[in-house]
Specification:
The protein is built from six helices and two strands. By secondary structure, the chain is mainly alpha-helical. About 15% of the residues are buried. The mean pLDDT is about 85.
């Protein structure tokens, strides 16, 4: 024992395999996300996590219906109805007729939603730049490649691929 009441052995469930290190490091990544999360920075948050993610997807794909959002995120319609209603009340999205003539109305990002999304994304990027300030451009690119591969593999397992720019 190195401290009273704490055995020297590894915690239950933790393995010596590299995947055990990935588990540990992703746990820490979630813990440290406040360093590059605009919602917790002194400038004040603008978008909550769900709005940031939904707006990002709508910005990439264009107007989307509740059905399309349900399919894209693997969430039930009632969850997305609550989230989109909150975004409408905040002026982040607007409902429009389907530009392709379909029956379902779609959500389009508003000018204010786009402005706030861009501002939050800029703060995220600035925070990440601070964290990786001492990294070489090659290291940042390598990390980005592995992170994209990791996310893509999760998306494949879940059956909900995310469009990439």
């Amino acid at each position: 024992m190195d401290k009273p009441g704490r055995p020297k052995d590894k915690p239950a469930g933790r393995t010596e395999k590299p995947v055990g290190q990935v588990e540990f490091e992703t746990m820490l990544l979630n813990r440290h996300s406040h360093l590059f999360n605009p919602r917790t920075r002194s400038s004040g948050g603008r978008l909550d996590r769900s709005a940031y993610i939904l707006l990002s997807r709508i910005q990439m794909d264009g107007p989307m219906s509740i059905g399309q959002l349900t399919e894209a995120f693997g969430l039930d319609a009632s969850t997305l109805n609550r989230q989109t209603a909150a975004m409408m009340r905040s002026g982040l999205v607007e409902r429009i007729p389907d530009p392709d003539g379909g029956m379902a109305r779609k959500f389009r990002i508003s000018a204010e939603g786009a402005r706030l999304l861009d501002a939050d994304r800029s703060e995220y990027v600035q925070g990440l730049e601070k964290v990786m300030d001492t990294w070489s451009a090659e290291d940042v690119a390598t990390f980005a490649g592995f992170l994209q591969r990791f996310n893509s593999d999760i998306e494949t397992l879940e059956g909900h691929p995310w469009p990439r720019p």
